[in-house]
Task: inverse folding
């Protein structure tokens, strides 16, 4: 019997609906700025938190009683039950995409040969499910952080044999992602960092990481994968310090190893705030550096100092995020992936649907609000006017390199410049965000 048999296919019913199993704002075919909501959002259900997480925490065992037994050793039979449930949920939600780590979906394995065998077995079944449902793969990735072999990292591990195991996993999952028509391949360096600097050679580990990423890019071209390669920034947790701590740091790493034109970022909301940045800062930075790729959409909790991975529920918070996504031209191969967990006490099958329905509706409302800001043009117009001096003759000569430090300094003296502060209109601009809701 289907685990989700009692749950209907989720439909759009509009803002007046009182049905908790319906979309109030997400109308997939509605045109916003000339493009459908579906194509703007490109949203995806994640396999790991939704189907692989048992509902445990550091103080207690799992609370989720599912037919596929999350948290227990995975047989091929259980992997198949999980797969069927996953695609039934994707289909009922009307999700255009999903994404997964290798070990989320496959049966357990003992060595490289059995890893390959079990991954191939589940990918065979996924191909059939994709053809049956029309749900696409937003991105695939290899889990290079959970197994004890990765306690000291994967690409940055002091043992080259661990590096080789990681290379086998990534090669295999890149092939699987390519075979399944995935739009991106993601690497999250969850343990690419250190717990103590006392036993760490930072320079050596960075060079190992740079070499690994170079090999990944080379392999992408070798197999003809035309999707994007993405790095997911995070500052710490589980390690004390991670080398891919935020978007700007990732760009510096890519620049050092000549990868800035080959790799982009997969930004997560909760990782941004853990790094001490705002979510919209990370997106605007990625736009400025031309490395914007995709987004893990979730939220943290200000009362907790760790990655709580909760579903988004705040439209005003997400409006500037969506605004900068639209300002950057929207997604190319990327999208919004719900890298979010229902709470440990939300034990029913319906709770999985409530979470995703609410998250999608929040994205839809933020999209509408951000689109209204784009159409009004007041926010972008103010920013353009604020920097307009750099479009004048003097500003253009400075920024183009036509003037030296002496010449610029002399200009200030010769013109008797006495510039005065100009209002940045912060409160007014914040009001624009709030009035767009």
Result:
């Amino acid at each position: 019997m289907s685990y989700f048999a009692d749950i209907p296919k989720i439909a759009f019913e509009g803002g007046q609906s009182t049905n908790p199993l319906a979309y109030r704002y997400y109308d997939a075919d509605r045109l916003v700025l000339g493009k459908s909501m579906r194509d703007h959002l490109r949203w995806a259900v994640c396999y790991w938190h939704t189907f692989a997480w048992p509902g445990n925490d550091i103080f207690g065992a799992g609370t989720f009683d599912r037919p596929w037994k999350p948290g227990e050793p995975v047989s091929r039979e259980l992997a198949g039950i999980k797969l069927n449930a996953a695609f039934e949920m994707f289909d009922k939600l009307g999700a255009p995409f999903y994404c997964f780590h290798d070990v989320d979906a496959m049966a357990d394995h003992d060595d490289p040969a059995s890893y390959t065998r079990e991954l191939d077995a589940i990918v065979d079944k996924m191909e059939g499910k994709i053809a049956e449902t029309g749900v696409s793969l937003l991105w695939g990735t290899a889990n290079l952080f959970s197994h004890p072999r990765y306690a000291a990292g994967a690409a940055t591990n002091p043992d080259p044999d661990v590096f080789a195991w990681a290379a086998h996993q990534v090669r295999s999952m890149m092939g699987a992602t390519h075979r399944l028509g995935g739009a991106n391949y993601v690497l999250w360096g969850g343990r690419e960092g250190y717990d103590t600097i006392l036993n760490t050679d930072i320079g050596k580990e960075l060079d190992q990481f740079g070499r690994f990423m170079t090999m990944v890019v080379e392999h992408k071209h070798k197999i003809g994968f035309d999707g994007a390669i993405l790095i997911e920034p995070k500052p710490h947790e589980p390690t004390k310090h991670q080398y891919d701590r935020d978007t700007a740091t990732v760009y510096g790493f890519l620049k050092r190893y000549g990868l800035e034109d080959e790799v982009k970022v997969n930004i997560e909301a909760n990782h941004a705030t853990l790094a001490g940045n705002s979510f919209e800062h990370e997106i605007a930075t990625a736009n400025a550096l031309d490395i914007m790729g995709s987004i893990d959409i979730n939220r943290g909790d200000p009362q907790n100092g760790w990655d709580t991975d909760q579903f988004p529920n705040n439209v005003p918070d997400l409006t500037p995020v969506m605004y900068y996504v639209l300002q950057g031209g929207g997604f190319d191969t990327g999208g919004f992936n719900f890298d979010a967990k229902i709470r440990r006490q939300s034990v029913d099958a319906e709770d999985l649907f409530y979470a995703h329905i609410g998250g999608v509706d929040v994205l839809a409302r933020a999209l509408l609000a951000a689109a209204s800001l784009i159409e009004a043009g007041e926010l972008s117009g103010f920013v353009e006017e604020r920097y307009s001096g750099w479009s004048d003759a003097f500003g253009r000569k400075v920024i183009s390199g036509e003037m030296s430090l002496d010449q610029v300094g002399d200009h200030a003296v010769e013109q008797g410049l006495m510039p005065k502060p100009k209002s940045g209109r912060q409160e007014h601009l914040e009001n624009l965000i709030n009035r767009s809701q």
